[in-house]
Specification:
The chain is 95% helix and 0% strand. It is built from two helices and no strands. By secondary structure, the chain is mainly α.
């Protein structure tokens, strides 16, 4: 028993146990830092997903615009040929 009491008194007289303090502060800091990195990465991933979805919608809109533009050009070509025919008819008559 005297050995245990002597070691307890020796530990008490040496002062602060810095290893215990570093471990008790360091482990929660590492855990909190890891959680912060994970949460940050998750929200960055969600932002990238939203950007990809918006870009997919933009591509679809661009494809639709090209299709509509081609249809308009076709209709304009038909209209132009009809106008030219009417102009030719007016020149022949007039």
């Amino acid at each position: 028993m005297t050995g245990i009491l002597a070691s307890a008194q020796t530990a008490a007289t040496h002062g602060t146990n810095y290893t215990a303090i570093i471990i008790s502060i360091g482990i929660p800091l590492v855990v909190l830092g890891t959680i912060a990195i994970i949460v940050s990465a998750y929200f960055r991933l969600q932002a990238h997903r939203a950007d990809a979805l918006a870009m997919a919608h933009y591509r679809q809109l661009a494809e639709n615009a090209v299709t509509n533009q081609q249809e308009l050009r076709t209709e304009l070509a038909k209209l132009t040929s009809k106008v030219e025919a009417v102009e030719k008819l007016m020149r022949d008559v007039g």
